[in-house]
Amino acid sequence: MRRKLAAGNWKMNGLAADSAVVRALEVSHAAASVDILICPPATLIASLAATSEIVAIGGQDCHAAEKGAHTGDISAAMLADAGARYVILGHSERREDHGERDEDVAAKARAAMAAGLAPLICCGESLSQREGGETLDVIGAQLAGSIPDDVDGSLVVAYEPIWAIGTGKIPTLEQIGDVHDFIRKTLVDRFGPPGDAMRLLYGGSVKPGNAAEIFAVSNVDGALVGGASLTAEDFSPIIAALEAA
Ligand code: PGA
After folding, report:
1. 1 band by pLDDT with thresholds 50, 70 and 90
2. Of these residues, 29, 91, 100, 125, which one is catalytic?
């Protein structure tokens, strides 16, 4: 049985005062039956990790190198040292804003695993790829290129259609199921039993009002939530829907 995972991606949001969101989640989900993860900006990782027991803390990116002359970047070992347990890699905003290619994501994933972090690797098609019927080809190529060969079952994959991120639009439940079943088969074909252990998250406009129906879809083991993870009022019911699924 895969343990379900409710993951929040705060993106470039969150000041010290927003630590209160994580504290509120710690209280309201003290006996959580699912894993809860918040990926705050790097500036908050150490303080949140030091004060959180229920909520795991993760990074939003890391550099592929162990250390060195890379101004402004952060290594996987630094994230782990600050208390992070996961790191989001290959988010579409990184792929678009920073030109990250599949091979860069794979190199970062290797660095993350070497530092003891679970990589949370994102994939997803654009609207024109969806409309052109290319979705599964795009996802297949991203998985092949972004996931290194020597991974274990702690790897997490998030399916995030780019056109659903921050737009309020979500694919049909059938479309989500088709992609998640395809990802599962691809991972099992390539990795065997570890591919069956990897958690598959859906991401893109997950809200309290649509979470339960998404969590009922086959091979959806949780969600990667952006906007609705910024407040406990929104994220808490999403966690509760996952616990009930
Ligand atoms: P959203 O973002 O929930 O705000 O659509 C999801 C994500 O980009 O991870």
Report:
1. confident
2. 91
Q: How far, in Å, CA of 17 to CA of 85, rounded?
A: 22
Q: What is the pLDDT confidence band of residue 182, given thresholds at 50, 70 and 90?
A: very high
Contact in structure between 164 and 204 (CB atoms under 8 Å): yes
> Under a CB-based contact definition with an 8 Å cutoff, are residues 204 and 138 in contact?
no
Q: Are 114 and 148 in contact (CB under 8 A)?
A: no
User: Who's near 126: CB < 8 A, 6+ residues apart?
Assistant: 138, 162, 163
Alpha carbon separation from 177 to 90, 145, 217, 239 (Å, rounded): 22, 22, 6, 20
Q: Is 72 left (phi over 0), alpha (psi -120 to 50) or beta?
A: left
**Protein residues with CB under 6 Å of any ligand 1 atom:** 9, 160, 165-166, 203-206, 224-228
What pLDDT score was predicted for residue 138?
A: 98
Helix (H) or strand (E) holding 134: none
- Alpha helices by DSSP H, listed for 54-161, are 76-81, 92-97, 102-114, 127-131, 135-146
Q: What is the pTM of this model?
A: 0.98
* Shortest-distance atom of ligand 1 to CA 88: 9
Ligand 1 centroid – CA 39 distance (Å): 12
* Mean pLDDT calculated for residue range 39-52: 98
CATH placement of domain 5-244: 3.20.20.70
Q: 122 pairs with which residues across the strands? A: 158
Residue boundaries of the structural domains of the chain: 5-244
